[in-house]
Amino acid sequence: MQVSLAVRALLAATALSLAAGCSMAPDYRPPETAAPATYKEVAGWIAAAPMDAAPRAAWWETFGDPVLDDLERRAETASPTLAAALARYDQARAIARDARSDLFPRIDVGGDVSRTRASGNGLGGSGVPRTYTGITLGGTLDYEIDLWGRIRNGVSAARADADAGGADLAAARLSLQASLADAYFRLRGLDAEEALLRQTVEAFGRAYELTSTRHEGGIASGIDVNRAQSVLASARAQISAVAQERAAVEHEIAALVGAVASNFSIPAEVKPLQPPQPPMTGAPSELLQRRPDIAAAERRMFAANARIGVARAAWFPSLSLGLSGGVATTRGDLFSTPSTFWGLGPLSSVLTLFDGGRRRAQVALSRADYDEQAAGYRETVLGAFRQVEDAIAANRYLATQGDDQRDAAAAAGRTRDLAMTRYRDGASDYLEVVTAQTDALAAERAAISIQAQRMRAHVALVRALGGGLGDGAQGS
């Protein structure tokens, strides 16, 4: 009964101390970032506040490419980069749980058994040695009363760090997904270029045969034959260059999905490179809010603010309370009432009077850390707006550039066909054909390159907006 009363007294003191406790941390106010009301590069988009906890869909599925879908799933389960980020998040969560344990009393239990022979001639002895067995079972409870918020601010900081670790994991996942999609569309752009070059080699080969036949008939000169052979060999060489570049991209994708490059391959396939329509109405800032890097920067700033409270609390005395109890005997029943013992206390307080300026330096260090995190937060937000503006501009201007380049490629193709017809009819020499063929090939390759850039720009926009362009978005 006495032990029960002691425990009740300790719990009452603990509750009272927590209710009366204060925090030394400054009031937390995220810094102003001077975010714009609207985006400059497109009308109708507005700015808002972070919303990084919003769910993120499998945004790459909007491309409708089963191969890309499969690669993204493989990366999710096998990427070593993502596994490392997950391990760091688990570490941060474990640290937060460790810090939280300081909020509760520490209870230790133990026991010992000893066999002792006491001297009969010693102090209080009867002249006859005495041998006895001592048995002790008991426990202790130690608790620091958090009057100044040192422990609570430490827990808040650790939790914020864990939240930042979760945001880092989301950022790593988004970066992996976007990097994989970017590499995949570079690969498909190279597939399209290689297919174009193979078609071109066939066409150049027929042109070479024509010039050879005409040369044998005395109609064409040897110069024409050499020119035809030159453009044909050049086109073949470009196939090898594209193949080498494609192999490097394929190896890059293998590393992203956690596969060994030697055992990994993606079959070549020519697919339409047409990106989904980006949203041009609504509230894009609600998507920008989902950026995990902004969330991580904000949480680290909050943690730094809480650690100021931890450092400032060191200027005040610490107060701790102890409780011990158990049973002990050298004779008789161990669990009988006479064998019990307990103690409440000590109630101890420690205040450092002189430390050579250590506490002042720690407070200054924590404040400087907060200033650094606040500056990093502002930099992250401003960088996010810049990236969104860049991605919006790239999508808009590449769309116009793609239309113009397709027109240029079509016109160059007509010029090439007309030049070949004129050559067959004897109305021009082969230099005109070579020039037209070279221009047409360059224009067609440029058109393919721009379409691949458009796909990559769409991926960059998704990445800049924090993963996903939202539901019900309208395009133009």
Give a concise summary.
The protein is an alpha+beta fold and 476 residues long.
Explain what this protein looks like in three dimensions.
The protein is an alpha+beta fold. It has a single domain (2-108, 134-464), classed as Outer membrane efflux proteins (OEP) (Up-down Bundle). It is built from nine helices and four strands, in the order H-H-H-E-E-H-H-H-H-E-E-H-H. Strands 1-2-3-4 form a four-stranded antiparallel sheet, with helices on one face. Helix 3 (80-100) packs antiparallel against helix 4 (150-216), helix 5 (222-256) runs parallel beside helix 9 (430-464) and helix 7 runs antiparallel to helix 8 (358-424). The longest helix has 67 residues, at 150-216. Residues 44-50, 280-284 and 470-476 have low confidence and may be disordered. It is found in: Cell membrane.
